[in-house]
Prior knowledge:
17 helices; 454 residues; mainly alpha
Amino acid sequence: MENRKQMKDGRIGHYGRVNGGKTMTMEDRKKDEDDIREPANQNDVEENLEKQKAIDDWLPITSSRNAKWWYLTFHNVTAMVGAGMLGLPYAMAALGWGPGVAVLVLSWIITLYTLWQMVEMHEMIPGKRFDRYHELAQYAFGEKLGLYIVVPQQLIVEVGVDIVYMVTGSKSLQMFHDTVCSSCKKIKTSYFIMIFSSVHFVLSHLPNFNSIAGVSLAAAVMSLRAKSTAGTVFNFFSALGEFAFAYGGPHVVLEIQATIPSTPDKPSKGPMWRGVAVAYIVVALCYFPVALIGYWIFENSAEDNILISLEQPAWFIALANMFVVVHVIGSYQISSMLVFDMIETVLVKKLHFKPTRTLRFITRNIYIAFTMFIAITSPFFGGLLSFFGGFAFAPTTYFLPCIMWLAIKKPRRFSLSWWTNWICIVIGVLLMVLAPIGGLRQIIIQAKTYRFYS
């Protein structure tokens, strides 16, 4: 029963609810109602956490965290030492010895520094891992702004690099065929692009980074084997983009680091940095000899793909091209895994599709077909390197990590860290502005004599 009393102002007030002879106040009653709701709310939270964990265990980046440090080495080597290396002698020819060597060495130093920054920022918040580039950007710039800044750039990088790898692999496959069977009937480049794509229609269904470790290892091993005044200026710009493309490692480093186990006692940055250090030694051993010796031998006659410049011996040219094919197969898989993760995250978390093999099969095949179509439409190797190198790789590799470092770490103004980051930012912005101009001009010139789908 409920007791009431008459208030002086005529209102009816409550003494409280009688429960088993005990009078309960309104506060006690509210508390009991909250206690009744709490288990249900707690169950909802636990259910949501379990559902989120199941999705994370399905997505490519976060599904496996048992990588070893040497996995990271060949993932990083595969991500970096790819098609960009083949264009270095051509870029050196456009820049000349002095500027060329300076840009070659400076790019190696800057990208090693920005890569170190990304490794350090991966677990800068205790108990929190920034498994994806955009997650770190969202922490640095805010939820919406970070997403708008990084996701378009990263998509351009990954899709762009996959298109370049599609062109590179198919042209190397074509050169291998023409070298081994010089008397055979010539086959169109478009058909070789389709042949190269067919490999990815199979490999793309490997679920995560660790599952492509064998492909990445093979790719890393293969990387170890093998004018007017206006025109001069534009070629100079184009060469800058080719260098930027060649050093595009930091754009994928957080996603690679996400595959490593981590504990408070043994954070992931230890093995990650060990893998990065070895990878960058390998990068130097690959890039410097190819760029310097290639330019020294061919000088201004170097092609945008150095393998085209080679004429003898035939067996070496065939072997080198096959090494490139194997390598860019692995490089394509590394880059496409990030795109798959983005697509599948949106489909499962935002659009609430059920995470199934069928969904993965359809989305990944559509993506492979898309990059194949663009590669057939625009197979301009050198121009694509320069354009994507400047427009997309320069921000994600040269200066976005520095901006995030300044925003999060807030180094003292005019300190060494402050100056270092601002110098990298200025260089990166200049690359982003100038390189696409040269690359776009190169594509336009090549397109004049190209017959589409021929």
